[in-house]
């Protein structure tokens, strides 16, 4: 499997199935991308946002579905990677009709794709989708709390592996204070970290400051703030070629998908001794929670989420031993697990 995470769009040939969906009655235009189901049925969110055209929607679905494959593999889940996007404004008055039309297309896949919440969709939306689709996730709870816990576990694991210390006194810059970013801030503050935060919504930033004592900076300043850890929790692609060369933080560990604009930038960060934990490792907590909901078993959920810290430590040790960047190593570890399952004949029928 060639690496194509980041802004690059993976080739259609790397996917088991890409379904372009439409519905005359609702005006639906959506895409479902199933990347790989070797380990189990694909699981991934339904994203609702306005794209410039169907090609842009398909590109986003493919990038995200591919990342879900590796995320599932590295988290030890018996799931594959999938994603779907609805090309519509989340505030559209006919959103329920769009969701139901999209759900009918999902149901036609016979369980090969399990939907969950994502940008622009909610737990209530997934309950609605669940009236049509036999198996859904995120219809019972928002997984963002577990995403946040996993990111903090990754930060803790990285700092422990490289410095042998905890998070007290660590300076963390958080870009984006949505559901996940706010919870990361709270969790880090509880462990004694010093926070620098930014959000395009100044109200959110002020609320986090009131709870945690964080320093608020303008969004334009957060990426180069004087911090130990840069934690992007908003849009993807924030670490571009220029920032990779000028970044002052010693760690890049965030919740945003596709933090690096190009996966090759992981080598640039390594050359500068910046510790980078790939987002598909750090932000797997939400997926782990979704998988537990599908299984109907939360008994080891928190343990699995906290184990992201162990995965991080193992990844950093392996990357150091091999003399490679963490993206390359993480991708290889995921591909090794998938290849092993494929060799053992553990492939879901297409």
Automatic annotation (TrEMBL):
PROSITE patterns: GLFV_DEHYDROGENASE (PS00074). Transmembrane segments: none annotated. Keywords: NAD, Oxidoreductase. InterPro entries: Aminoacid_DH-like_N_sf, Glu/Leu/Phe/Val/Trp_DH, Glu/Leu/Phe/Val/Trp_DH_C, Glu/Leu/Phe/Val/Trp_DH_dimer, Glu/Leu/Phe/Val_DH_AS, Glu/Phe/Leu/Val/Trp_DH_bac/arc, NAD(P)-bd_dom_sf. SMART domains: ELFV_dehydrog. Residues 141-346 form the Glutamate/phenylalanine/leucine/valine/L-tryptophan dehydrogenase C-terminal domain. It is an enzyme of class 1 (oxidoreductase). SUPFAM superfamilies: Aminoacid dehydrogenase-like, N-terminal domain, NAD(P)-binding Rossmann-fold domains. One of its GO terms (molecular function) is L-leucine dehydrogenase activity. It holds the Pfam family ELFV_dehydrog. PANTHER family: LEUCINE DEHYDROGENASE (PTHR42722), VALINE DEHYDROGENASE (PTHR42722:SF1). Belongs to the Glu/Leu/Phe/Val dehydrogenases family. This is Leucine dehydrogenase. It comes from Amycolatopsis viridis. The lineage of its organism: Bacteria, Bacillati, Actinomycetota, Actinomycetes, Pseudonocardiales.
């Amino acid at each position: 499997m060639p690496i194509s995470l980041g802004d690059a769009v993976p080739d259609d040939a790397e996917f088991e199935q890409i379904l372009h969906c439409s519905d005359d009655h609702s005006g639906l235009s959506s895409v479902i991308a199933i990347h790989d189901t070797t380990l189990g049925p694909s699981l991934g969110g339904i994203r609702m946002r306005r794209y410039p055209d169907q090609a842009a929607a398909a590109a986003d679905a493919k990038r995200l579905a591919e990342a879900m494959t590796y995320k599932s593999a590295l988290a030890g889940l018996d799931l594959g990677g999938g994603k779907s996007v609805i090309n519509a404004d989340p505030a559209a008055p006919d959103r329920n009709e769009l969701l139901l039309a999209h759900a009918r297309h999902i149901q036609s896949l016979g369980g090969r794709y399990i939907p969950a919440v994502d940008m622009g969709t909610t737990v209530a939306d997934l309950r609605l989708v669940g009236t049509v689709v036999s198996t859904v996730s995120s219809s019972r709870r928002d997984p963002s709390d577990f995403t946040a816990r996993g990111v903090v576990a990754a930060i803790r694991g990285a700092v422990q592996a490289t410095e042998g210390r905890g998070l007290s006194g660590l300076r963390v810059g958080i870009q984006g204070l949505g559901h996940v970013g706010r919870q990361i801030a709270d969790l880090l503050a509880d462990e004694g970290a010093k926070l620098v935060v930014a959000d395009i919504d100044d109200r959110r930033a002020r609320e986090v400051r009131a709870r945690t004592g964080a320093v608020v900076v303008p969004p334009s300043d957060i990426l180069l703030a004087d911090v130990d850890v840069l934690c992007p929790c908003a849009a993807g692609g924030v670490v571009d070629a220029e920032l990779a060369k000028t970044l002052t933080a010693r760690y890049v560990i965030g919740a945003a998908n596709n933090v690096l604009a190009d996966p090759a930038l992981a080598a640039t960060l390594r050359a500068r001794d910046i510790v980078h934990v790939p987002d598909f490792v750090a932000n797997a907590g939400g997926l782990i929670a979704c998988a537990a909901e599908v299984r109907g078993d939360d008994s080891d959920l928190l343990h699995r989420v906290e184990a992201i810290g162990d995965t991080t430590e193992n990844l950093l040790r392996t990357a150091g031993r091999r003399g490679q960047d963490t993206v390359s190593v993480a991708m290889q570890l995921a591909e090794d697990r998938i290849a092993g399952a494929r060799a053992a004949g553990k492939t879901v029928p297409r």
